[in-house]
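Input chain follows. Return structure tokens only.
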Amino acid sequence: MDITINKLQAVTVVELAGDLDANTASEVQQKVISLATPSSKILLDLHGVKYMSSAGLRMLLSLYRHVTANKGQVVLVGLAPQIYKTMSITGFLNFFTTCETLESGLAVLQQKS
């Protein structure tokens, strides 16, 4: 799993590339959840993630809980169709704002200032 973290204005952009599964979810969780500081704005770019197991979904839920507990915001960008479908069926999309592009995700987070 490749994890790239950048700051664009007041938004932390986390780009993931690779499978998000039992082998990689704990590493991603350690790096990403530490970014959930008070009032943080996190954009999770998942364009490079083609497979997500239940471990990946648990990691996303944990991230959501940490971010919202700290009065922050998280947006998911670039969900692969199969991942989007799985998140829809399981109700995970009820928790997250999703966008197609990095630009639209940044716009959503900047509007919610």
